[in-house]
Structures are given as C-alpha cells and as structure tokens.
C-alpha cells in the first residue's frame, strides 16, 4: 500500500497544561500593562525588545535546547503550547520567533562550539533577532537557483549578491543564509550551496525596505558588497547546504503558526454573533471550529513525531498545505458570516478592522515558508509519484 | 495505510482480505458474498466487540473496536458490522445481553424520537436506519416519562419501508407502533440520544477515513499505471497536485476520526471535549468525503465512473455515511451553538483542551 500517512492522536501531557496556565497569566499581565493589544493585529510589532527579554526571562525561548546553551531541555510539546498561546493572543513575537524556531536549532546542529556558547544564550535571553536568507531575486521557492556568491579569501569568504523577501532583516542582529560556493554540477543541481552565519549591521550589508500590501513593513532586500564572513561562520558542510536547509523545514511547516495567523477574526465573529446565533451563523462557526480542531490535532501529532526524533517531512507539508489554505480562507468565510451580524454588535468596529487587515494578510499565507505548489510536490514525492 | 497493531484488527483484516475483496464483491451480482463474510466475522466475535463477555460479547476495548471500524472502512465493507457493534454497545450500557445475529440501532438520526408509552410499549418513527432490513434485532434508545431507556426489540415487530442510500446500501424507515420490547432498562446517567449519535458519528467518521485511505491508494496506483499523452499520468504536475490534496483530505479525515475515537475511549463521559471531538470528526470527515472522493474520480477519469470499477464502492459509501447519525450540517449547527453559548473567550480554551 502506498500511503503510510499516520497522524496518531497525541495528547499534550499534563505539564503542558500547567505551562499553558503560566503563559496565559503572563500574557494577561502584558496586555494589562499595555505592551500590546490582542485585538489589534495590524500594528508594527517587529521591535518589541523588552517583551522579548521578558519572554526569555520566563525560560520560554530555546526551550528544547541543551542547558549549557541557556536552554531548558524541555519537550517540543511544551514549546508547542507556548507558541500557540502567543499566537492566539496576538503577542509581538516577530523579534524572537525565527531564532527560537529555526536559527537556534541550525546553530546547535552545525555551528562551532565557541559560536554556540556566544550566541545561543543571547537568543534564550531574548536579546537578539535573526533573519533567514534563502530567497533571491528570481529564485524564491527555487532554492537551488540561488546565485549570491561566497568567494574564498584569506580567513573566510567574500559575499556578493542580493537576498530578498527577508523578513526582519532591518532589525536582525544575525542572518543565517545560503550562498553559492561552487556551481551546481550536471549530476546534482543541488550541489554548491553553503550555509553561513552572517553578522548584520556591518559595512558591506545594505538593507532596503520593501513595503507590503497590508501597509506594514516586514521584509527587505539585503545587498551584500564584498562582505566578509570569517571561516568559522560556515555552518555545516561546504557545498552541502541543500540537505541542511530541507531538514529544517519540518519545524517551519507544521507548527501552530501555520494555521493561526488569522485566527483572531474567528474569535471576534463569535463575539459579534453573541450567545444565540441564527442557524446560518451557527453552522458557519461550527464548520470552522471543526476544521480548526482537526488541523490542530494534526499539528500536535507532527509535534509528537518531532519529539520522538522522527523527520515527518511529508506530514509537515500536509499540515502546512491544509493549514495555510485554511487560514487564508478564514477571513473570507468570516466576512460571509459577518454580513448578517447585527449592526449593534458591540465589537462590530473591531471585527471590521480585523477583517480588513486579515483579508490583506491572506494572500501571503500560502507563499511564506514554502509555496503550496512546492509543498504539494513534496507530498507527491512522498506518495511515490516523482 | 495504517498498519494493524492489534489482534482484533489483524483478525478482521484477514477476514476482509479473504472474503470481502472489493473486486470480487463488485463482480458478484447475487450478493452471495454476504453470508460467508458475516459468518466469518461472527465466528471471530467481531460484531459484538463492544459487548462484555458476561453479556454475550467478546469484550474488546472501545479503542480496538474503533480501529476495527477504520479497517472496515478501508474495505468499504457493506454488512451491518458497525451497526451491530453500535447496537451491542448501546445494549451493554443498560446491561442488556446481546442476542446473536445482525442488529442495528434506532434512531439513527438526531431528529427522530422513539417514545416509551405508560404501558411499556415503544412507538415512533426512525428514518435512514442502516441495514434495518437485514437486522434480526434493534437496539432502541427511547424517551419515557421517567427518562431515557434502552431496549432490545425483535426486528419483526417493526414496520420497515425499504430504502437505499446513495451507496446502494439499505437505509430504511422503521416505524414502531406500540411494540413490546424483548427487554427494556433505564439508560445509565450520561447515555442519551446525543451520546448515541456521537458514537454513531465517530463510527461513520472512521469508516469514511478508511474509505479515503483506500481511495488514495487505488488512485495513486492507477496514476502510476495509466498512460496518456505518452506519459504515466502520475508524471503530470496537475495530477500530482490533485493527489497531494487527496492525501491531505485523507490525512485530515484520519486524524479527526482517530482523535475522536481516542477521546471517547479515554473519557469518563460524553463531556464538552468529547462533543467537540466527535462532532468535529463527523463534520471534517464528511467534508473530506466530498472533496477527496471528487479527486479520486477525477484521477480515474471515465473508468472510475463505471459500475465495473471498484472506486464507487468507496466513494459512494463515503458520501452515504455522511448522512447517518447526523449530517455535517446538523453537527455544525450544534457545535456552533455550543461555541456561541460558551462565548468568544472560551473558544480557544475549548479547542486547546484537546
């Protein structure tokens, strides 16, 4: 039989529920103190350094990492709970999230010890921000088309070229990027890319902002001109980055952030329809909740596989595909249902503002972190079609 | 396809492989496959999986029984296995011994009601009752003036109007007109018509998930065999993307159904959390049956639309199973009302409680 896809009904252990209470209490305090407004997703939250530090002080960054690097050696499932509670509350996580989810684990796997000892504890304390340099002009999802060159020189490499769509590059302290160290071979077009740790905010790097259709400023063009990266900042195997980059993706693709980005409009719709909805509203809400619950169960299941040391690449791709399509459709379904909400609903204005922003956000959701088309290609490969 | 990891499922899969091969059944226009299959299932004690030993059953766990239903879905089995299991489960709730032979449950829709009269007789109409015509007994959930009762009824005492569901299986209307039950007892606390519908809904969800696994499997296999425009159709990106979506729907159905089954198997009662899980499973699996079935047919082209091909055994049953024990529309309204009544700020805590 072809498809051995399993999504076992993993349950979050009791200690996760205790942790969830702690996270909710912390977020309630932050909201009360005015750090952020959970009903306003459309703020610029790229720079919330004090909030990051307070999250770090709670021990909620680098949760799964070794203690010697400042981590807590807790489980992926515990990290999962923190992530979803932050996301649902609309907390300003952008500053630390990439480092916590991806960059830190890459460093743990591939960086020299002295770099780990230097950088990882600072991530755990919420002091530094990371960006990921994958896409380039005319490459995008086609990672192997990347052209930005790293040329060997005395004691390191000189970087020349341009990365694009780089989220948070304007506030990032570091970037983990892939650069071309040699040309692809005829046999292997994946050959020749190497992963580097790049220290930002130095001469030779220019960050140019790119505006988004939401009105926000999040991603950038990053231009490297004879930028020097020392030898010990090579991460992993020279010319072998493609393998490293793809194994990262299960972490990036299956988490709660992949179906909860527009979740706030659903809560607000439930608030607007009130305790006694008409049949149409009730049915619409019921379906959306059933879909949300199902996706979350799938996502928790993948978190359980990651915790068990598996590499659920296909399962993670399925979760991202279904999850991002759902979070993309959600604002439109909520808009359908909101058309019948009473004019007198007390949160009507909030709901409309949220819908406006969510509808503008929606188009990016099936693009970021691997387009739907690329994901479906990975799933097809898992089915034995390619 | 999920590997069988318990003895109940292994036994069932062996019987299904030997006696319920979809192609053999599809070719058999006289339904002569049914009796040997049912006999083998009965000899293995499978229809009464959920009935304890002392009440005439084989005493398997709820979890094993649910896994068995998922396996039955993978073979699109069209004998009253799920129905007899549900009937046995219902009777066991009231400590009523299960008889031998095929059974089904009444009512099979949340909208129908059977009432218990003062003289101890049962009356009411139940529509869309699966396999009523094949059943020797009904397990009935009835409402009396003192509360909910569970009764064993001789099927011959009911009036049956035959019907077929969209998958060509019997789905009948049963009318009880002052029928005296064989046995009747009060239902224990927490077992009511809603619990029966949730149990039935999860059974159907697991069957739908199983059917989707099989549809994915035969669609992938077919796409690797069929050549068009001088290529295997599995090499066309459009076909690959369709199959990837089918895999997603199949995975979602399986995840929702097994999660709900796990929730019921481990819960003390049919509480809000079980309600969320079971209702969600029925809603999401029904949606998956619609979307996934359409893709499976698309991949197969015209051949999959023929009566000779086995695809319809899965696709039409998956569509038909949507209607039993409350459609997705029914459960969506009910779940939506539950969510609304608890209020916006309780939605996430409810979802996150699972």
UniProtKB/TrEMBL annotation, chain A:
InterPro entries: Acyl-CoA_DH_CS, Acyl-CoA_Oxase/DH_mid-dom, Acyl-CoA_Oxase/DH_mid-dom_sf, AcylCo_DH-like_C, AcylCoA_DH/ox_N, AcylCoA_DH/ox_N_sf, AcylCoA_DH/oxidase_NM_dom_sf, Mycobact_Acyl-CoA_DH. Coiled coil: none annotated. Its cofactor is FAD. GO terms for molecular function: acyl-CoA dehydrogenase activity; flavin adenine dinucleotide binding. GO terms for cellular component: plasma membrane. Residues 131-226 form the Acyl-CoA oxidase/dehydrogenase middle domain. Residues 14-127 form the Acyl-CoA dehydrogenase/oxidase N-terminal domain. Keywords: FAD, Flavoprotein, Oxidoreductase. PANTHER family: ACYL-COA DEHYDROGENASE (PTHR43292), ACYL-COA DEHYDROGENASE FADE34 (PTHR43292:SF4). This is Acyl-CoA dehydrogenase. It comes from Bradyrhizobium betae.
From TrEMBL, chain B:
InterPro entries: AcylCo_DH-like_C (IPR036250), AcylCo_DH/oxidase_C (IPR009075), AcylCoA_DH/ox_N_sf (IPR037069), AcylCoA_DH/oxidase_NM_dom_sf (IPR009100). The keyword Oxidoreductase applies. Its cofactor is FAD. Keywords: FAD, Flavoprotein, Oxidoreductase. The keyword Protease does not apply. Signal peptide: none annotated. Residues 203-320 form the Acyl-CoA dehydrogenase/oxidase C-terminal domain. Belongs to the acyl-CoA dehydrogenase family. This is Acyl-CoA dehydrogenase. It comes from Bradyrhizobium betae.
């Amino acid at each position: 039989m072809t498809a051995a896809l399993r999504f076992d009904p993993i349950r979050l252990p009791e200690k996760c529920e205790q942790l969830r209470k702690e996270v909710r209490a912390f977020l309630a305090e932050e909201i009360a103190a005015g750090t952020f407004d959970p009903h306003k997703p459309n703020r610029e939250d790229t720079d919330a350094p004090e909030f990051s530090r307070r999250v770090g002080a709670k021990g909620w960054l680098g949760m799964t990492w070794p203690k010697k690097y400042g981590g807590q050696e807790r489980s992926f499932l515990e990290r999962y709970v923190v992530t979803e509670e932050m996301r649902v509350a609309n907390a300003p996580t952008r500053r630390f999230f990439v480092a916590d989810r991806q960059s830190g684990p890459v460093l743990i796997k591939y960086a020299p010890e002295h770099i780990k000892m230097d950088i990882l504890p600072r991530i755990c304390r919420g002091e530094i921000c990371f960006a990921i340099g994958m896409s380039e002009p005319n490459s995008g999802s086609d990672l192997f088309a990347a052209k930005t060159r790293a040329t060997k020189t005395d004691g390191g490499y000189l970087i020349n070229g341009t990365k694009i769509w780089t989220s948070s590059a304007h506030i990032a302290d570091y970037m983990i990027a892939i650069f071309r160290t040699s040309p692809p071979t005829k046999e292997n077009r994946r050959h020749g890319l190497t992963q580097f740790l790049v220290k930002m905010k130095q001469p030779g790097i220019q960050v140019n902002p790119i505006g988004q259709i939401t009105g926000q400023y999040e991603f950038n063009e990053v231009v490297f001109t004879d930028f020097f990266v020392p030898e010990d900042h090579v991460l992993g195997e020279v010319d072998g980055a493609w393998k490293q980059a793809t194994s990262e993706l299960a972490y990036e693709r299956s988490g709660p952030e992949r179906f909860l980005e527009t979740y706030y409009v659903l809560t607000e719709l439930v608030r607007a329809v009130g305790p006694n909805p008409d049949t149409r509203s009730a049915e619409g809400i019921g379906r959306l909740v059933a879909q949300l619950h199902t996706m979350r169960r799938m996502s928790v299941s993948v978190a359980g596989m990651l915790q068990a040391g598996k590499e659920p690449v296909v399962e993670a791709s399925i979760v991202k595909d279904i999850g991002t399509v759902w979070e993309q459709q959600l604002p439109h379904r909520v808009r359908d249902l909101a058309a019948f909400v009473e004019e007198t609903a007390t949160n009507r204005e909030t709901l409309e503002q949220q819908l406006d922003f969510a509808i503008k956000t929606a188009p990016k959701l099936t693009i970021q972190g691997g387009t739907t088309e690329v994901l479906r290609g990975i799933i097809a490969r898992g089915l034995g079609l390619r | 396809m999920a590997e069988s990891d318990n003895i109940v499922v292994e036994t069932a899969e062996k019987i299904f492989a030997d006696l319920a091969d979809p192609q053999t059944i599809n070719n058999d226009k006289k339904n002569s496959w049914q009796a040997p299959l049912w006999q083998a299932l009965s000899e293995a004690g499978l229809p009464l999986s959920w009935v304890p030993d002392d009440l005439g059953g084989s005493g398997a766990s709820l979890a094993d029984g649910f896994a068995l239903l998922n396996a039955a879905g993978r073979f699109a089995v069209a004998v009253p296995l799920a129905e007899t299991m549900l009937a046995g489960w219902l009777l066991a709730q009231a400590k009523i011994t299960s008889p031998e032979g095929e059974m089904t449950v009444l009512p099979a829709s949340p909208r129908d009601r059977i009432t218990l009269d003062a003289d101890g007789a049962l009356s009411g109409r139940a529509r869309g009752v699966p396999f009523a015509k094949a059943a020797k007994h009904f397990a009935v959930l009835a409402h009396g003036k003192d509360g909910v009762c569970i009764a064993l009824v001789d099927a011959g005492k009911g009036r049956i109007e035959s019907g077929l569901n969209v998958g060509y299986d019997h789905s009948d209307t049963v009318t009880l007109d002052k029928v005296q039950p064989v046995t009747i007892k009060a239902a224990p606390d927490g077992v009511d018509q809603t619990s029966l519908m949730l149990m039935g809904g999860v059974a159907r969800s697991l069957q739908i998930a199983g059917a989707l696994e099989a549809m994915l499997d035969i669609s992938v296999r077919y796409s690797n065999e069929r050549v068009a425009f001088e290529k295997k159709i599995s090499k066309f990106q459009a076909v690959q993307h369709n199959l990837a979506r089918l895999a997603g729907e199949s995975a979602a159905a399986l995840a929702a159904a097994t999660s709900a089954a796990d929730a019921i198997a481990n819960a003390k009662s049919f509480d809000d959390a079980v309600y969320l899980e079971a209702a969600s499973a029925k809603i999401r699996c029904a949606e998956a049956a619609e979307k996934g079935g359409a893709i499976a047919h698309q991949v197969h082209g015209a051949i999959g639309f023929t009566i000779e091909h086995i695809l319809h055994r899965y696709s039409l049953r998956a569509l038909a199973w949507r209607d039993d024990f409350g459609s997705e529309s029914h459960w969506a309204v009910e779940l939506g009302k539950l969510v609304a009544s608890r209020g916006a700020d309780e939605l996430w805590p409810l979802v996150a409680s699972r």
